[in-house]
Write a structure and sequence with these properties.
Layout: E1 4-12, H1 17-25, H2 31-34, E2 38-42, E3 51-58, E4 61-73, E5 78-86, E6 92-104, E7 107-118, H3 127-147
Length: about 150
Amino acid sequence: MGLKGKLLGQIEISINGDLFHEILGARPHHLPSMTSVVLAVDGQWGTQGCTTIFKYTQGEKTEIGESFMDTIDDEKKMVKYRVVKGDILKSFKSFIITCEVETNGDDNFVTWTVVYEKLKEEIPEPLTFMEYLFTLTKETVDHLAKVNP
């Protein structure tokens, strides 16, 4: 096993994928009211350079992180974040999160990719962080489905 790794996870969503991408890319400031895992969004909302403060659970411990939005690509329906502060950087030298939305007729999928470099070989793979991303997705979709039936 090496220090560098990549995790991919995909989840089907019940809402239009364009709407999900719009929330992550153009309206991330709505996430704190939609989910229990996003605490705040700061900076020029919906533009590259804004930051998101989030909480996630590692084992039984709640941790906090801050990510910087590096890329918004509306054509590819892709948003890329780089973790710049927080508990996760105690274990990882770098941590980059990408969300891509795929729409094909009535089928809508969200694919999360985490590219990371561990500080030490014995640090476990960030599987619980992928769970956090799925929770973020599910809570956002559930909220949007209620307000946009």
